[in-house]
Amino acid sequence: MTTFVELLVNGISIGAVYALIALGFVIIFKATEVVNFAHASLLLAGGYLVARLWPVVGFWAALLIGIAAAALVAAAIEFLVIRRANVASHSVLAIVTIGVDIVITTELTRQIGTDVLAMGDPWGSQVVRFGGVTLAETRIVALVTAALLITAFLLAFKYTGWGVAMRAAAEDAETAALMGVRLGRVSMSAWAVAGALAAVAALFLCVFPTPGLDRSTSLVALKAFPAAILGGLDSTTGALVGGLVIGVTESMMSGYQNDMAFLGRGIGDVAPFLVMLVILLIRPAGLFGTKELARV
Amino acid sequence: MADLAVSDLVVGYGPVRALRGVSMRVPSGSIVAVLGANGAGKSTLLRAISGTLRFHRGSCQGAVTLGDQRLTGLAAASVVARGVVQVPEGRRVFARMTVEENLRAGGLGRPRREYAKAHDQVVELFPVLADRARQRAGLLSGGEQQMLAIGRALMAGPTTLLLDEPTLGLAPLMAARITETIKEINSLGTSVLLVEQNVAMALSLASHAYVLEVGEVVLEGTAAELRASDEVRRRYLGIADAVEGTLRTRTLSRWS
Ligand SMILES: Nc1ncnc2c1ncn2[C@@H]1O[C@H](COP(=O)(O)OP(=O)(O)OP(=O)(O)O)[C@@H](O)[C@H]1O
Ligand SMILES: [Mg+2]
Question: ipTM greater than 0.85, yes or no?
Fold first, then answer.
């Protein structure tokens, strides 16, 4: 029973981190109808800067710089690549983002080499115990931070002028422009917010129990793709639910993999994609989505 | 306040020529009507003024000016910022947002105090928008959606309002209501460029009118002149016949 609770809380915590990534993915899609395959490289860029800078400027300053830099890189991609690419189809833009991803990821993996970079976070490998349940401090911080960020984002999306502009542009870009909404700003801000969220997620993907940031970190980030897709690419609620489903599934499958040896080792890594496939077979637009992936 | 003027406007969608050298003027404070059959280029004219041709892969030559400012080449949002605001054909309310959020979307660019004032005016003009504030705009009736679309545009504080077939598809009573509202908005000082197929209604409101035909102005004059002209009478009756004709065939095909 205690194992179950531990696995569940860990799953929710990692799921909340996936939700941060998926949320960014979804707002970019809503604002620009582009499926951003460069998302994992944004995450890697943010995490890399934190890992390199904390020995120099301290952890918190490094974290702020990492977040700001990821937001800047994302805004730059929007401004220099997406906005200028004069193509008819959003699928072509999606392929363009694959190109951007390859450029950024290749350069960063070259910089990282075979190193495993520590994040310099203040929580280290400390654990807390509630009754018989043992949890890593990093997992609790991740859960609380992700929950706060997601709440703040959803409130802004619902109540601020920025959120109204964003939703109007997502629903009908031409009419939003007719009402004076500056579409360029909306889409650039969507990319920047997504970049910032990805950098925060990078931190929590690389702290204890993970040894640190290495060249495979962007692969871990890929698990957020099924989260966004199974929730529905154009649904913020979907991103949250998708993230949690993937996090909990992965945690449970890894935790109980000895009992499920018949499924083979490493089922925890495959599970997110299996869950996504099953859900897409039943609901092609994802759990909360309104647009089918085929229309992307 | 300044006159809105269009001169020698040529618009193409790829190889398709939609406007071939159109010129017209909306004097400050007036109501000017643009009449024309389906496909004459009326919506294209409004898109060229509002700067939304790029959403339709269209391109334009010629000039659109407001007083001594050139609007041609500006982004749609900048045209709005200069006071020229369009209520698009088919209402185009944000269906998934609430009525209140739609109004908010219209007034995003304005300081808080002006916003509150504009909101009061819109709600006074259309009380139903206050009653339905928290309802999704997609659930409103056609007439209510048209009121919302006009109210949303008013939130931006237009000095010139462009209306694309505001009575299309509305029952006579609702159409009359919208007509009254247009008169009221104009009496408060806003110039109106009104695109309509309902010729009688448009000529009753406007001081001046232009008739578009396949992308060209074929007739223009004061509303009184046009009302008296044989050509308009003939064409107006012709349009009425055509509309009745299509209605009849539609009803028949539905039953057959
Ligand atoms: N997005 C587009 N792409 C290509 N051609 C277009 C496009 N929009 C309009 N056209 C063409 O341009 C011409 C003028 O169209 P427009 O929509 O301006 O007419 P309209 O007078 O508004 O007609 P309606 O009364 O039916 O609204 C038509 O021949 C139409 O087929
Ligand atoms: Mg039209």
Answer: yes
